[in-house]
Amino acid sequence: MIQEALQEIQRGTAEIIDSERIEKLLTAFVKEGKTYTVKAGFDPTAPDLHLGHTVLLHKLATFQKFGARIQFLIGDFTAQIGDPTGKSETRKQLSAEQIQINAESYKTQVFKILDPEKTDVVFNASWLNELGSVGMLELTTTFNVARMLERDDFEKRYKSQTPISISEFMYPLLQGYDSVALKSDIEIGGTDQKFNLLMGRHLQRTYEVGKEQAVLMMPILEGLDGVQKMSKSLGNYIGVEDAPNDMFGKILSVSDELMWRYYELLSDKSLKEIEALESGVREGTLHPKKVKESLAHEITARFHGEDAAVAAQVEFNKVHAKSQIPTDIAEFELDAPIWIAKALQECAIEPSTSQARRDIKQGAVKIDQVKVSDEQLQLEKGEYVLQVGKRKFARAKVK
RNA sequence: GGUGAGAUAGUCAAGUGGCCAACGACGGCAGACUGUAAAUCUGCUCCCUUUGGGUUCCCAGGUUCGACUCCUGGUCUCACCA
To answer: The pTM is what?
Structure first.
């Protein structure tokens, strides 16, 4: 039991510091029913979560299974400084109301993965405001500049003479102090957070909390292209709020290789179950597409419910496997007669008539499932389903 | 403050008076093959119903029959020096 729990906790991690301590906490839980705390910090900026963020949440959920209470920390105080990690700009400040709105929005998204019963949502302003200037100065005496500059991005910026504000030095200290205030047993974060996470250990020692948190780091999830990290700006993400059909489709479009990565980091299936799937595929008894569908189903169901997931799967097969027309497509009213290229543009499935003409030449355009070869075609009165490629559809009512 | 370099399509990056709507790479879209896979191959990738027309290569002027390419001024970015 303990070994199994430990394996699930280690699953997919990039690095663990002090895994003995984690093992002890697990043992205490299994043998004596003792709970422990796991801290994870989040920015109160707009919580537009994608699956990359949920990797961390998943790990938290795993911990909940094995006796942890989650300290879901919203860094409303620290947001005023802005974590310098990977960024060079100072950021804009958020109003108190905005932070509150964002926090609420976090909760609705996050509790699809986490068990609210075992989660405490905390704001670090509640103790950092208390600290006062004396406490703040005291905090600064616990560390020195040379060591602070060891942090990777500080070092780089210092060497390249990019300005570093003194307040930025406060960020790791304050994040570490959060661990003192919360007396966390474990803290988890991304690999880029290593320095800050370790600061928690350092400060817990200096403030004599009586324990030093273990640290667990999760890797960055690759996006749909399988190479770069999942991020909104790169457009290779699967958003938590994506519509069921999109979500399902996006997951299915991922490469087989990447699928296993997603299984490891995003699925609730146990390691054993996943291994069984892998060997099944290797031996040819399981079709990789089936395995991928099952993953897509699991994730879609998590965010949209079982029914929506089933519907998305049915819809997907209808459109792609049987190449039929999707159920829900946008409708447009047009005036007859209308040139086909113009109609495609009006229906927003082509950006310009030039592009439309090119696609017609390539045989990518269909009307009611029939390929269009005449680029001069005029549409008369009637209702048509226009299609470009495999996934762009529109219903045109020509009057 | 001084000196030098540079600003080209979604990104990177050629072109340095006509052959330029502008090489190439990446990305994107489409077609073939498929499991909507991935990989691979092929085509396309400013706009306009196109053997053609229009508007582009930071901005404003100028030289020229003709400028992304030359000149003047401006804006911004970067590097080195102070």
So the answer is: 0.80
Q: Which token pair is A221?
A: 């999830």
Q: Choose between A217 and A373: higher pLDDT.
A: A217
Predicted pLDDT at A157: 67
Judge contact between A30 and A240, C-beta under 8 A.
no
Where is pLDDT greater, at A92 or A379? A379
Which one, of A43, A44, A83, A41, lies nearest residue A168 by Cα? A83
Among A117, A129, A124, smallest CA distance to A103 is for A124
Provide ipTM, 2 decimals. 0.81
Q: Which residues contact A109 (CB under 8 A, 6 or more apart)?
A: A47, A49, A240, A241
Residue A72 pairs in a beta bridge with A40, A121
Any residues with CB less than 8 A from the CB of A359 and at least 6 apart, and which? A344, A350, A365, A388, A389
CA distances from A336 to A361, A378, A379 (A): 23, 8, 7
Between the CA of A87 and the C1' of B82, what is the distance in angstroms?
29
For residues A119 and A91, give the distance between their C-alpha atoms in angstroms, rounded to a whole number.
29
Residue A345: which residues within 8 A CB-CB, separation 6 or more? A351, A352, A353, A356
Could you tell me which residues come within 8 angstroms of residue A40 by beta carbon, excluding any fewer than 6 positions away?
Answer: A56, A60, A70, A71, A72, A73, A187, A188, A189
Residue A333 confidence (pLDDT) above 80: yes
φ/ψ of residue A184, rounded to 5: -70, 145
Q: Who touches strand B, with Cβ under 7 Å?
A: A 225, 248-250, 252-257, 259, 288-289, 292, 316, 320-321, 339, 341-342, 345, 351-355, 357-359, 362-364, 375-376, 378, 388-392
3-state secondary structure of A186: strand
Instruction: Find which nucleotide's C1' atom is closest to A342's CA.
Output: B49
Residue type, A267: S
SS3 A370: strand
